[in-house]
Amino acid sequence: MGPGRKPVLAGNWKMFKTGAEAAAFARELRPRVSMIHDAEIVVCPPFTALSAALQALTGSNVQVGAQDVYWEAEGAFTGEVSAPMLKEAGCRWVIVGHSERRQLFGETDEAVARKAAAALGAGLSPIVCVGETLAEREAARTLDVVGRQIRTGLGGLSEEQMAGLVVAYEPVWAIGTGKVATPTQAEEVHQAIRSLVREIHGAPAAGALRILYGGSVKAGNVAELMSQPDVDGALVGGASLSAESFAAIVRWRG
Q1: Which phi and psi (to 5°) does residue 172 adopt?
Q2: Has residue 2 been placed in a domain?
Q3: Is residue 37 domain-resident?
Q4: 208 located within any domain
Q5: How many domains are there within the chain?
Q6: CA 164/CA 160 separation, integer angstroms
Q7: Of the four listed, 44, 75, 105, 157, which is most buried by Cβ atoms within 10 Å?
């Protein structure tokens, strides 16, 4: 974790939890993390549970984000949700370009760029996800793939816009598999992302950028990951579905 960068611990619930379940989770989580003020804590429920989560977390130190967004503000886009809608609902964050969106729903680097820009324009903080598949890692293409995703997804943004987002590196082979990138593997890619952002946007933007690790993060491995100089937080999947396990990750310092 780098100096001056406030860590972000975000939970991506994916397609889990009804509104009632989200509210119950929030009530359980609040007291477990109320003493944490040196990190940003975020939960990302499904669209239908956002309202219940926001209501149950009002006045707490836990922020709420959505899992996806469309790049147009409104229009004939059946089934989509816009950034101004999420902002008005009370969201502060939104996940953009998660590997499941890319792999299962065909989301492109260009779509990710448009979604990130739309989120920033509405005053939301995007969590922009990048990462390689197992085949790409085995072919030694990790840095090429992640580099392309960063250049296309973030290259068109201004330095001011860069200050409003975070990047999440999530090796696809480590998501939901129980496999975790070693702290050294994670640090290597995080360092490369920071170097690339320095090249595109300059040293101040690169130094301030928070880069999260995602991929089978648990209470047992988060401290070691967070000890790396370029790992500034975590995007947590399965372990964020239990208030107890997510709180243990948020309290990784002990």
Answers
A1: -60, -30
A2: no
A3: yes
A4: yes
A5: 1
A6: 7
A7: 44
Q: Which residue range(s) make up the domain with 40? A: 8-240
What is the CATH number for 141? 3.20.20.70
Is residue 71 one of the residues assigned to a domain?
Answer: yes
Q: Is 190 a catalytic residue?
A: no
For the chain, list residues with pLDDT below 70.
none
Q: What is the pTM of this model?
A: 0.97
**The residue type at 234:** A
Residue 194 near residue 231, CB atoms below 8 Å: no
Residue 178 confidence (pLDDT): 81
Token digits of residue 136: 């790409």
* CA-CA-CA-CA torsion sign (137, 140, 141, 144): positive
Tokens matching residue 24: 């119950």
- Concerning whether 199 is annotated as a catalytic residue, the answer is no
Residue 208 vs residues 99, 102, 160, 198: alpha-carbon distances, Å: 24, 27, 11, 10
Residue in 98, 100, 190, 201 annotated catalytic: 98
Which residue among the candidates 107, 170, 190, 201 is catalytic per the annotation? 170
**What pLDDT, on a 0 to 100 scale, did the predictor assign at position 228?**
97
Supply 116's token pair: 């990130």
- Residue 41 pairs in a beta bridge with 9, 62
Distance CA 91, CA 66 (A): 7
